[in-house]
Amino acid sequence: NCAAAICNLTLHDGGEARMVEDGADLALRLILNSEMYNDSGGAPISAICVQALFNLTCVSDMYDDLEKVIKVLIGVPVTSTLDSRAMTISAACNCSNFFKLRVRLLEAGALQSLNAVALEGDRVAHVHLHHCKNGASRSVAYHAAVVFHNMATSRACRTDMVLRGAVTSIVALSHVELP
User: Fold this and answer.
1) What angle do the packed helices 135-152 and 85-96 form, to 10 degrees?
2) 3-state class of 131 per DSSP?
3) What's the rounded mean pLDDT across residues 89-93?
4) Which helix (H) or strand (E) holds 87?
5) Residue 101 contacts residue 62 (beta carbons within 8 Å)
6) What is the pTM of this model?
7) Is pLDDT of 69 > 90?
8) Rounded Cα gap, residues 49 and 51, in angstroms
9) C-alpha torsion 152→157→160→161, nearest 10
10) Strand locations in 3-113, DSSP E?
11) CA–CA gap between residue 90 and residue 70 (Å, rounded)
12) Exposure on the CB side of residue 29, measured as CA atoms within 13 A
């Protein structure tokens, strides 16, 4: 299937910019959309698409269309069969290392994803996050904290972060025992 082929190609180190330039992000978004809204459940193929998008953010140097990848990831809805928030937070962590992308992350909605992970009080994931001995949940909290830190170092992000509830989220994350 196309999602698996693209995901396998994302393992080629150094080809990420070319893949996005050639439309890999668009193809993955189309596959995600078709899988999310059909009756097949779509979890395995959707998870492959999310992994491929994450892989496209694992770069040491920023490339021109990297923000398009994070926009697609942030747009993946949480469903009963797929919760891509951990992968989205990790991808945002990767992208937040690039100064030029920090404001773009805010514009793309990364702060809403971070706040959702930090403040989600009525779901098992949040309770588990705060009282966890589970390394994966603590890792999500750690990556969210890194994104908050990186974005807060950018003067252009600070006002939006305060106005959009980042302080409350950071306080919530401060109670998590990070790895």
Assistant:
1) 40
2) coil
3) 94
4) helix 85-96
5) yes
6) 0.85
7) yes
8) 5
9) -20
10) none
11) 10
12) 13
